[in-house]
Structures are given as C-alpha cells and as structure tokens.
Amino acid sequence: MPQLRGGGEEDLGASDELISFKDEGEEKVQENSFTERDLADLKSSLVNESEAPAMPEAVRRVQDVQRVYQEKLADHMEDGIKHHEEPMYKGSGYSSYPFLMLSDPYLSNGSMSTLSSKVPVVQPSHGVHPLTPLIPYNNEPFSSHSPHLPADLNQKQGAHRPPQTPDIPAFYPIPPGGVGQISPSMGWFTHPLMLGSGVHTTGIPHPAIVPHSGNKDMECYDRGMKPHLEPKREKEPKKPTIKKPLNAFMLYMKEMRAKVIAECTLKESAAINQILGRRWHALSREEQAKYYELARKERQLHMQLYPGWSARDNYVSNKGKKKRRSREKHQDSSSDPGSPKKCRARFGLNQQTDWCGPCR
DNA sequence: CTTCCTTTGAAGCTC
DNA sequence: GAGCTTCAAAGGAAG
Hints:
GO terms for molecular function: DNA-binding transcription factor activity, RNA polymerase II-specific; RNA polymerase II cis-regulatory region sequence-specific DNA binding. One of its GO terms (cellular component) is chromatin. This protein is mainly alpha-helical. It has one domain (2-226, 237-313, 338-347). 47% of the residues lie in helices and 0% in strands. It has helices at residues 2-5, 14-23, 25-51, 55-80, 97-100, 151-160, 192-195, 216-222, 248-264, 269-282, 285-305, 317-333, 340-347. α3 packs antiparallel against α4 and α9 (248-264) packs across α11 (285-305). The chain is globular and about 65 Å long. The chain starts with a helix and ends in a 13-residue tail after the last helix. The model is unreliable at 1-103, 109-234 and 318-358 (pLDDT under 50). The protein binds a DNA duplex through residues 1, 4, 13-14, 126-127, 129, 243-250, 252-254, 257, 267-278, 280-281, 292, 295, 299, 310-312, 314-317, 319-320, 322-324, 326-327, 330, 337-338.
C-alpha cells in the first residue's frame, strides 16, 4: 500500500491505529471492564436460555444487555472517534452490532454451523457482514434503507421476516466460554440447535438453521428415526472455522461492492476488487480512518468472542506454494497488476479512457 | 468440485 | 526487525 506507507500518508493505516490505541489508554480499561462483564452477562443469559425455554425472559435479558451496550458504546464512540465530524456509529445500526455478531459471521461452513452466515433474515444475500450494512459512514455510499442492497432484496427480507426478527440475535447462542475454547474434538453436532431441523430448543423455528435438503439421513435424525444404512461414504463433518476479522479494506469492499457492481455492471470479483483498491486509495484520510476504526473494533470484538483463537488456526500450509507460484507467474506477466492499462486490456476498453469510465 | 484471480491489511512465520 | 506468507470477501472463470 504505497500510498499509506509513503511519506505524509504513512500514518494513515497502522499508525492511525497506534494513535487510536494510545488514545484508548483509559478508555480501553473502561471498555474492557464493560465488555467482559456484559459479554459474561450475555453468555450466561444465553446459557440460561438454552436451559429454560422461557423465551420472553431470555429476550428481555438480552435486550437489557443490549441497552447497556448501546449506552456504553455510544459513550465509547464519542470518546474514541473525536476526529470525525459526524457521529458515524451513534444512532446507526452499529450499536446493535455485537448482538448481530451473535449470528456469528466468523463461523464458516454454512449449514454446519449453528450460527450460519447464510441466513437471509439476519444476513442479506451474500452473507453480508452484520456490521457493514448497518453503518451509514457517510451519506454517499449509504442511504437510509440498506443502501448497498438491492431494494427488492430488502423487500424480500421484509416480507419473509418474522415478527420476532428484532429478537432473533437472542437466539444465536455463543457456546459457553466462547467459541475460541471449542476444540475440534468437541462435538459440534451435539449442539441442541443441530438436533432439529431449524428448530431451536425453545421450539421456535430458527432461521439460521438450514436443514439439509435432500439428506435423508438427516431427515431421519430429525424425526428421531435411525438413518438408513448408507453404503456411500460418510461425509466428514466439516469443522466450523472461525474466520479472521475483516480488516479496514475488507470492510470497505463489503460496503462498496454492490455499488461498484451496479455502476460498472461487472460481476467478476477480481475486476471489482481492482476498482475498489483504487477507490480505497482515493478515499480521504478521514474516510479511511472510519474503516480502520471499524476494523479495530472488529478485532477487539473478535478477541473477546474467541479468546484463544489465532489466525494460525486457519492456515493451510499447502496453499503457500500455490500462491507463490501464482505470484511468480504474475510478476512475470506484469509489473503493474492493477494498472488501468491491464484493466482496459482485460475488458477491451478504450485505451483513452482511464479505467472504466465511472469505475474509478 | 476446487482453485485462481484481485485487492489491502493483519497476523503469523522464518531468518 | 525485516521480509515473506496466509487469509479474510466476492463470484466468475478455468481446470
């Protein structure tokens, strides 16, 4: 990232965060004292919820925690983001973020996860991050109604949204002690949510639990029957992976992707990402700082949710060779992989046009 | 079905 | 500590 690392722009990225962390000195203590306690409250409430099917009680408790969190987060944001002319989180959906986080965007393997990210009610079309669709950073990329989502999608969601949707996050349990303490040997299938097809222990249908379509063995399990003896090989259960928290640029990409797609009528992610990379560089310092701050919050929250987690957990050493090969090949073919020239060549655009017209 | 492409940033690893 | 590697997201393309 030459723009950020060179000269005056240098402290935009990491050092911006350094400043931010320095500023947090006292704040961090308050924040941690709050989050630990409230996370504990939240977790215990969820544990209680799973033990007793008294849903209204569980909902009320979560809402209480949420209210407390919103108050404290608002305070935190006022202290932490003084340099922003607009209160970007306050009054936005962001205050609900940690509770949307209970739908767990970090857990992958969709249907295998009790906290599936492929839930149309909680997460829109492409499993849009629970944070980003709700935060109007500024007026440009976001409108008041889920800006980067197609309008019809929002309507569809609204149409399918059950009346209790606002409380749905309360039904996304965090495993006691945090997911970070879950070892692969711990039976993910023994989770109560996995036992029924989309039915929570409360008996309420769970939108996050997508039953395996066409899996008759699972259907048998669902009905309390023994599965038919299946001569086919048993499918190895995919272990849920806790994803890395998104960095600032990833958050930006999630926000802007839909817009770029709409403007440029492109679908190829590689091309879109090139455009987004350039736009990222074109962002003002303040605009980028918003995303850095957001990413920092993501990491903090991720650390709290998964204390023992390490990025190493998701490392696959195999991929290194492939990636290296790919990169070497790349260097051979082009010294400027993201150049407008290459973009134009790739999409057969006019050589006189810098990038793709509106796609800057 | 899996991997690649393409971007930036964070974190892990190696020397 | 510098430099390299891997992975986060996305979805079409290619193998």
